[in-house]
Specification:
The chain is an alpha+beta fold. It has 1 helix and 4 strands; from the N terminus they run ββββα. The strands form 2 sheets. A two-stranded antiparallel ribbon has the order 1-2. Strand 1 and strand 2 form a beta hairpin. The longest helix has 8 residues. The structure holds zinc ion (ZN). The site of zinc ion (ZN) has 8 residues, from strand 4 and helix 1. Zinc ion binds next to strand 4 and helix 1.
């Protein structure tokens, strides 16, 4: 969840730590523009999750999320 000055995890509400407006804690952002074959055609959905909530979510997957090693650090 983004507001002018802060980013909060949509799941637990925790504030993502930032220093000088730069996040110093990793998190994920999902942005989805729903299309014609969905029930939300024309809706853009966006949310942020902290790492702990991302882990809690992926632990519920029947098929584990794919994980590969990053070749170059971004
Ligand atoms: Zn969270």
């Amino acid at each position: 969840m983004r507001s002018e000055k802060e980013i909060r995890c949509n799941m637990c509400g925790k504030k993502i730590k930032q220093e000088q407006d730069i996040p110093v804690e990793d998190f994920i952002t999902v942005k989805k523009s729903w299309g014609y074959f969905s029930k939300k055609d024309g809706t853009v959905q966006e949310f942020d999750l902290c790492e702990a909530c991302c882990d809690a979510l992926t632990r519920r997957f029947q098929i584990p999320a794919a994980e590969t090693e990053q070749k170059e650090m971004l």
